[in-house]
Structures are given as C-alpha cells and as structure tokens.
Write a structure and sequence with these properties.
mainly beta
C-alpha cells in the first residue's frame, strides 16, 4: 500500500499545560492544546500529541508558551461513547519553542472514500464536504474530514469515490452544539480546509 503525503507545520501558543493522552508500548504520550490564529483573527485550538521524550526537551511548557510543530495529522475512532466519534490530532515529529508569527500549513494526499457532498450554506456560499483516506506505513490509514469553498468546491464535488486527491490547506477547529438526551452540548469538530489542489505526491 502506497504511503500518502501528510505533512503539517504549526506555530502558535499553548493554551494549557500538557496532559497525559495515552500509553502505547510503554511510552507515555501527552496532549498539548495549541492556539493558532488565522489571518481573519479567528482562533483554532488544535490538539498536538507528543511523546514523553519530546516533552522532556521543552523548557517549562505551559499556558502562553510558544511552540512550533512539524508532524502529521492523525485520526482514530473514539469508542468510549464520550465526545466526538472521530478524534483528530497532530502527531508531533519535531518540536521547537521558537517565537514567530502563527502558521498552519498542511500538505496532504489520499483517496476519496465517500461521495463528496456539494451544498450551499444559509448565506448562499457553496461548500463541498469530503472524507479523504491518507495511507500510513504498516497498512494503517487516517480518515480526514475536508471542506472546500466556492469554485474549488465545484471541482471537488465532481470527483468520485476512489479518486486520488492532493492538496494544500490548513487544519482548523470549529465549535458547534449538539442535542443529546435533551441536553445541549458544545463540541469541537476538526477539519481540513482546502486552499488549493496540487499534483501527485512528491
């Protein structure tokens, strides 16, 4: 199985101290909530997962600390019944506490695994929703929700299940409400906002 392109670079500031995420093969992994501002001024709060060894290289990481991350976007199915069913995070490969302007750059390729849904927002903007399967090594894949707007949405809407897609964009968060057992709950969705379609994998 071919490995797809999946590279993300983030630079922003932590909104809280690291918390334990999970343990895998004896290694502890921690979640760092990273705030990255868009040009519009809107804020994305993204979940960065780092190993204990990586965390030990950082100097007093906590709320307000700058952080730059090079890594991949990862997903897994949450079967706990609590929170979102699809959990999207950034798996860090390199970290730095360098200062700088906020950045959010993603290069991604994969295969469409569901028919694209082309629709209009209440304000009349055209949007296309897709699920892109990006293969990792060792036979695993990440299933990433993607959105495109305007003329790009029409191009994506014309694609079919099984088509290859390569894109540049950003990972973003979106807060929404959901009614569960008569109670309104606030949740956060994570999705890839497509800025442009590119050529084949490099």
């Amino acid at each position: 199985m071919q490995t797809n392109n999946n590279k993300i670079f983030l630079r922003g500031r932590l909104t809280a101290s690291p918390t334990l995420s999970h343990v895998n093969h004896g290694m502890e992994y921690y979640m760092l909530p990273l705030s990255v501002c868009r040009l519009s001024g809107a804020e994305d709060i993204l979940h960065v997962v780092v190993s204990r060894d990586q965390l030990s290289t950082l100097s007093s990481p906590g709320e307000g600390s700058p952080l730059a991350v090079w890594g991949e976007v990862r997903t897994f199915n949450n079967r706990s019944g609590v929170g979102n069913r699809l959990v999207v995070s950034v798996f860090a490969k390199e970290l730095s506490q360098e200062e700088g302007e906020d950045e959010n750059r993603l290069e991604l390729s994969g295969t469409l695994c569901k028919p694209p849904v082309l629709r209009a927002t209440p304000l009349g903007r055209t949007i296309c929703d897709m699920i892109l399967a990006a293969n990792r090594r060792y036979g695993r894949a990440d299933y990433l929700p993607c959105i495109a707007w305007g003329s790009l949405a029409y191009r994506c809407g014309a694609m079919e299940v099984g088509d290859h897609m390569a894109l540049e964009g950003r990972l973003q968060s979106r807060v929404y409400t959901k009614e569960i057992d008569g109670q309104i709950q606030e949740r956060t969705a994570f999705e890839v906002s497509i800025m442009s379609l590119t050529g084949e994998d490099t």
